[in-house]
Amino acid sequence: MKSKSEYDLKAIGKRIKEARKHLSLLQDTIVEETTLSKTTISDFERGEKRPSFDLLYYLHTRYNISIDYILFGVGNLVISKEPPIDNKIDLTSFGSDLEIIKEMLETMKQSIIIKSTIIGHYRTFVIENPDLIEKDIEITRNKK
């Protein structure tokens, strides 16, 4: 687990404040609608504290704010309705992993935390390993 100093709390705080301003919310409104105090919200926005699950859950479920954006600065601030996965994907290409992929997708539909975590890991891996991914795609194409 990362220590407090390894997180860019100032950037996360800035994005939390950006979300609140985008929604035209006062800190007092968040206080009224959650169990958080105004001091705590202010601490989050200044990057003095890690944002709580309660705040992230509140922003996501009530206002469709992207947890990925808040924590990692990835994607858009507000999540729009995503189109369904293209039904033309050849599911047989997943082989023995198909059942676990189906289970993962079903869990992602039911849990915001799981969905955000998996997507966050995926995006981080893609950003940090573009050469490895490109090479792997090339090898996979050549096997077909």
Structure description:
With about 140 residues, the protein is mainly alpha-helical. It folds into two domains: about 1-80, 434 Repressor (Amino-terminal Domain) (Orthogonal Bundle), CATH 1.10.260; about 90-144, no CATH class. Helices cover about 65% and strands about 0% of the residues. The protein has helices at about 10-20, 25-35, 40-45, 55-65, 65-70, 100-110, 110-130, 130-144. The N and C termini lie far apart (about 40 Å). The mean pLDDT is about 85.
Annotation keywords:
2 domains, single chain, elongated, mainly alpha, 434 Repressor (Amino-terminal Domain), 144 residues, 0% strand
Summarize the structure in short:
This protein is mainly α and 144 residues long. The protein has 8 helices and no strands.
